Amino acid sequence: TNRPPKNIDELFDDVDYYPEQYLNRIAHDGTNGLWIYTRLSDLVKTDIIPEYGVGREKRIAKLKKIIASAKRYGIKVYIFFIEPYYLDDEQKKKYPELVGYKHYTGKNTFCVHTEKGKKYCITAMETLCRELPDIGGFIDITYGERTTSCASGDTSNCPRCKKYSRAQIVAHTVDLLK
Questions:
Q1: Peptide bond just before 5 cis, omega within 30 deg
Q2: Is 110 in contact with 148 (CB distance < 8 Å)?
Q3: Which H or E run contains 93?
Q4: Within 13 Å and on the Cβ side, how many CA atoms surround 75?
Q5: How many H-runs (helices) and E-runs (strands) does the chain carry?
Q6: What is the pLDDT of residues 79-122, one digit of tens each?
Q7: What's the chain's Rg over C-alpha atoms?
Q8: What pTM did the predictor assign?
Q9: DSSP designation for 161
Q10: Alpha carbon separation from 90 to 39, 93, 120 (Å, rounded)
Q11: Is the Cα dihedral 140, 144, 150, 155 positive or negative?
Q12: Which helix (H) or strand (E) holds 101?
């Protein structure tokens, strides 16, 4: 629902996309997992990027409800995201220590080799795991679909990441988010 054609945030509206009848049917058809697309910036508030997490309480409450309902049918819920998400120009100005470089798309990569970048990834995931103890897990595209970390392009463009290969940056990102 968070992608075309609907382009809505299923965790922020009041629609029940997973009613009991639906969960019962898909469980009997052999489904044992659901994934829901969202962003860390929508689910987690940190002191590193304090403007993130607006509306998080509503999203977390809805996610907990979905997880509990699905669990009754033997279905696990997985969060799917593309993280760490790039920084916009305003964030680049506010948090220059998180920026890797300006990607050819015009977006600013999120550098995971800064102390604040590392802290954000670790804090965000620890917060989610603490708040959602019954979550099935996480599916993350750390490289390839959107501008994320400095692995998103020519790694030599980031003063911190230029000494790492793309594979090393992706591996480091995964280690921080696990």
A1: yes
A2: yes
A3: helix 89-94
A4: 25
A5: 6, 5
A6: 999 999 999 999 999 999 999 999 988 999 999 999 999 999 99
A7: 17
A8: 0.91
A9: T
A10: 18, 5, 18
A11: positive
A12: strand 99-102
Closest among 63, 53, 51, 78 to 13, alpha carbons compared: 63
Per-residue burial over 79-100, b if 16 or more Cβ lie within 10 Å, else e, is: bebbbbbbbeeebeeebeebbb
Q: Which residues pair with 132 in a beta bridge?
A: none
CA distance 178 to 95: 24
Q: How far apart are CA 162 and CA 155, in angstroms?
A: 5
| Gap between the Cα atoms of 133 and 154, Å rounded | 37
Residue 97 one-letter amino acid: E
